[in-house]
Amino acid sequence: xxxxxxxxxxxxxxxxxxxxxxxxxxxxxxxxxxxxxxxxxxxxxxxxxxxxxxxxxxxxxxxxxxxxxxxxxxxxxxxxxxxxxxxxxxxxxxxxxxxxxxxxxxxxxxxxxxxxxxxxxxxxxxxxxxxxxxxxxxxxxxxxxxxxxxxxxxxxxxxxxxxxxxxxxxxxxxxxxxxxxxxxxxxxxxxxxxxxxxxxxxxxxxxxxxxxxxxxxxxxxxxxxxxxxxxxxxxxxxxxxxxxxxxxxxxxxxxxxxxxxxxxxxxxxxxxxxxxxxxxxxxxxxx
Length: 287
Ligand SMILES: [Zn+2]
Fold this sequence. Notes:
The protein has helices at 32-44, 48-62, 71-98, 143-149, 156-174, 177-185, 190-217, 226-236, 239-247, 260-273, and strands spanning 12-15, 107-111, 114-117, 120-123, 129-131, 136-140.
């Protein structure tokens, strides 16, 4: 990704020094948290999202988290995150204008280990996540190396895809899609409610792909191999893959993010079309 020397977003907070507790609202998680949540959910038969709150305490209490202490590496990570965020701001500003709306960009908070949010305490083990209540995306900078080492999804564009996915959740929040889905989930069985969550996640992947489309066509920020890096990451953090890693088999009803194939499909669709109207993952025939 050709990110060096580009505009860095000011909608960024360095939270690497912050800790603390919070409320109990629902977060929309990234990849890694789901791994642990699903395992716990399978063991206990509970709704994965309901377990998020409990999980945070568990993980922050028992896991030793290594923060990046190298100053120059840290500031490079932060620059990268800010440039990617700025790129999403430009794309979504234009897309919202096309819809006759004004885009209000999210704040992105970079943390290390744990972080206090309007959605409760966030932990690195949950992976990057978006909190609809404070309109902020949170990302642990160590996730960059997690992608590379643990998920075998190296490359700066893999990380950019993850950021764009979280921004996608913000877009869903602004467009009222998240709230509508949360309403629809009420009264559904756990399996049915999970299916709706999958559709929301896949749409965030589609929106990340749509960002990549304009990052390439308008901003010329993409290098050869970048899209493969994103697809590789989408593949690596699909729920079926995470579950295989964690227990050796796949349990479809526990999915909350979609399979690797679905995640790649929707990212690609957004990337290839650049057309927001193609992103209805909630359509009956979408999955
Ligand atoms: Zn997500």
